[in-house]
């Protein structure tokens, strides 16, 4: 599964995919019991940010009420307890990613900061003309940091194209690699198209060309069962809030060699060994990159989220999400006013679309009248929107807590929204 291979859809029964009960999962999310505009909430915006289960909420409350203190610096009981919980969360993330050790896990405030951390460090060695390869399906967080290196260091951005079905054109990607390629930065799973990229093959090709590889796993960590050792990448990035954890926490995985070669990103407490008037020496990774008071509660929350998620088999969850996606798509096939953006084989359960004669923002607002929460706009992927020829689009993203009733409510609300404009 590390390479994003398609998951075979299991048989669907009344409660979803065999072996998984989405209603039991849904019951663990307090917010999903509320109503919006007098209708049951149908939350289909998990690609932007996922809701939080009771286990994560309780972990945060317990930490704040029972053992909160700053970490690493104290010798008292509360500090020791907080430090233990904080570093245990790092170990949980390492196991989740199949990282070789917790020392390869760096805490950040999100996926965006993790990518910027790498860009800042790698950028110091970038020379004019050095090439960075990205793809047309990247999120802005995996585009703008490299544009900054283009502006400031003279780097050359090269764009791997996508095919019309939304999949990455691997032949064209391979042709871009050359002796000037210094870094390949590619998403594991597109937040718009749902396409899951063959990241192990991408890494193999890039390494053969002498380039480092960064994988944006902000979607892939949730839906594509990442295994960083199987992928072989130098860096893998994820964000907690899409993984049922709080906002304000992210992760940079790096190989021991890659992290050791990176200079500090920010200066302050914790990231140093010694500070003198004439010189300063820096801590070893991962603490070298964690200046100041870290996101203690948020890290503990991410650890709780991953432990909670571990009760489910990743393949079963993927099959459930894809069953909802395919159910909605099959119901919508008869309508010629709908254009689905991205139908690559093996894609994840993200349904992005445009509606003939209606602006995406208007579609989303009308659907909200029926309690259906979807996202509209460019989805922080403006180059992709231009490639697809759409000014904006609407996106429904399915998660493990969604049900067949949610999928039907989505389709019904979308049809009503379309009828409003004709």
UniProtKB/TrEMBL annotation:
It is an enzyme of class 2 (transferase). Its EC number is 2.8.1.7. The keyword Transferase applies. NCBIfam families: sufS. PROSITE patterns: AA_TRANSFER_CLASS_5. It comes from the Bacteria. It comes from Brevundimonas olei. Keywords: Pyridoxal phosphate, Transferase. Belongs to the class-V pyridoxal-phosphate-dependent aminotransferase family. Csd subfamily. It catalyses: (sulfur carrier)-H + L-cysteine = (sulfur carrier)-SH + L-alanine. This is Cysteine desulfurase. Residues 42-410 form the Aminotransferase class V domain. Catalyzes the removal of elemental sulfur and selenium atoms from L-cysteine, L-cystine, L-selenocysteine, and L-selenocystine to produce L-alanine. GO terms for molecular function: cysteine desulfurase activity. The keyword Transferase applies. Its cofactor is pyridoxal 5'-phosphate. InterPro entries: Aminotrans_V_dom, Aminotrans_V_PyrdxlP_BS, Cys_dSase_SufS, PyrdxlP-dep_Trfase, PyrdxlP-dep_Trfase_major, PyrdxlP-dep_Trfase_small.
């Amino acid at each position: 599964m590390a390479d994003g291979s398609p998951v075979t859809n299991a048989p669907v029964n009344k409660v979803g995919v065999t072996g998984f009960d989405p209603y039991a999962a849904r019951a663990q999310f307090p917010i999903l019991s509320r109503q919006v505009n007098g209708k049951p909430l149908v939350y289909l915006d998990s690609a932007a940010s996922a809701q939080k289960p009771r286990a994560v909420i309780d972990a945060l409350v317990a930490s704040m009420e029972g053992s909160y203190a700053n970490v690493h610096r104290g010798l008292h009981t509360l500090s020791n307890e907080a430090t233990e919980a904080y570093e245990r969360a790092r170990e949980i993330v390492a196991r989740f990613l199949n990282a070789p050790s917790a020392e390869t896990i760096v805490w950040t405030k999100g996926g965006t900061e993790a990518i910027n951390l790498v860009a800042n460090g790698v950028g110091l060695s970038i020379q004019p003309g050095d090439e960075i390869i990205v793809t047309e399906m990247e999120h802005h967080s995996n585009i703008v940091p490299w544009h900054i290196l283009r502006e400031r260091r003279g780097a050359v951005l090269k764009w791997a194209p996508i095919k019309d079905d939304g999949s990455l054109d691997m032949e064209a990607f391979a042709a871009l690699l050359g002796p000037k390629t210094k870094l390949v930065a590619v998403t594991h799973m597109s937040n718009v198209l749902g396409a899951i990229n063959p990241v192990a093959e991408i890494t193999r090709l890039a390494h053969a060309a002498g380039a480092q590889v960064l994988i944006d796993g902000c979607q892939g960590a949730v839906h594509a069962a990442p295994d960083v050792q199987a992928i072989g990448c130098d860096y893998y990035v994820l964000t907690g809030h899409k993984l049922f954890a709080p906002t304000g926490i992210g992760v940079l995985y790096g190989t021991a060699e890659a992290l050791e070669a990176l200079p500090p990103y920010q200066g302050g407490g914790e990231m140093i060994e010694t500070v003198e008037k004439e010189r300063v020496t820096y801590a070893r990774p991962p603490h070298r990159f964690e200046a100041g008071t870290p996101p203690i509660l948020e890290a503990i929350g991410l650890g709780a989220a991953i432990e909670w998620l571990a009760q489910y088999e990743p393949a079963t969850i993927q099959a459930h999400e894809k069953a909802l996606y395919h159910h909605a798509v099959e119901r919508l096939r008869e309508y010629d006013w709908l254009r689905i953006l991205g139908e690559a084989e093996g894609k994840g359960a993200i349904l992005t679309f445009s509606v003939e004669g209606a602006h995406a923002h208007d579609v989303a607002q009308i659907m909200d009248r029926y309690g259906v929460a979807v996202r509209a706009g460019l989805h922080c992927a403006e180059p992709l929107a231009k490639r697809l020829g759409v000014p904006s689009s609407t996106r429904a993203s399915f998660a493990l807590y969604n049900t067949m009733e949610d999928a039907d409510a989505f389709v019904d609300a979308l049809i009503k929204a379309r009828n409003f404009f004709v």
